[in-house]
Backbone:
């Protein structure tokens, strides 16, 4: 099952070379780990909250939309079985910061990497590198989100998970880093997010 999925990914996915890095052109779209073990789908708000509260991996679609890829919680991202297809990895904070440095810094990173469609409500992008960041929101574990299934509005922002570095020591903290692209600014920034949140992943090729 995983082999078939990886074959589909490789067939349909375009690589983007930016500096010395090679990125996937789309968000990761997997529902099983590298060894083939399935990741539970949490469709409802209650299912999502239960998986996160129990520190169990989970995925979902943003409002059942297929075109954005899958949202995963931190427990799927950090699972030792691995999410990335063969030959790829989940980027660390250093990987993202290297990307931003190459394209001119964080102040205009959002403008340069965001999709140049009208999807963004205010500050859209020029998509200079065909990275095509779309404002797919995220799934929040917080009660203040007005959407009944706890999805943030489309058009305003998107988060990408940051992978733990090799020397990472597991802790009991409920948060980890993500990369935020905000529709209210041209910049991109490192953010701290609840591990129960559902956010996107963009893979980096192993070199």
Residues:
């Amino acid at each position: 099952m995983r082999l078939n999925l990886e074959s589909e990914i490789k067939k349909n996915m375009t690589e983007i070379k930016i500096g010395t890095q090679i990125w996937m052109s789309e968000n990761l779209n997997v529902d099983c780990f590298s060894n083939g073990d399935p990741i539970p789908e949490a469709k409802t708000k209650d299912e999502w909250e239960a998986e996160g509260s129990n520190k169990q991996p989970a995925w979902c679609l943003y409002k059942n939309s297929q075109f954005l890829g899958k949202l995963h919680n931190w427990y799927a991202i950090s699972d030792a079985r691995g999410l990335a297809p063969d030959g790829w990895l989940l980027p660390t904070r250093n990987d993202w910061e290297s990307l931003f440095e190459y394209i001119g810094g964080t102040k205009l990173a959002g403008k340069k990497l965001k999709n140049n469609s009208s999807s963004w409500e205010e500050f859209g992008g020029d998509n200079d590198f065909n990275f095509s960041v779309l404002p797919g929101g995220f799934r929040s574990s917080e009660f203040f989100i007005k959407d009944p299934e706890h999805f943030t509005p489309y058009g305003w922002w998107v988060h990408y998970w940051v992978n733990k570095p090799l020397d990472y020591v597991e802790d009991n903290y409920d948060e980890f880093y993500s990369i935020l692209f905000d529709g209210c600014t041209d910049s991109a920034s490192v953010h701290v997010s609840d591990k129960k949140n559902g956010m996107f992943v963009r893979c980096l090729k192993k070199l």
Remarks:
- Residues 2-205 form one domain.
- Residues 117 and 195 are 30 Å apart (CA to CA).
- The first strand starts at residue 15 and ends at 18.
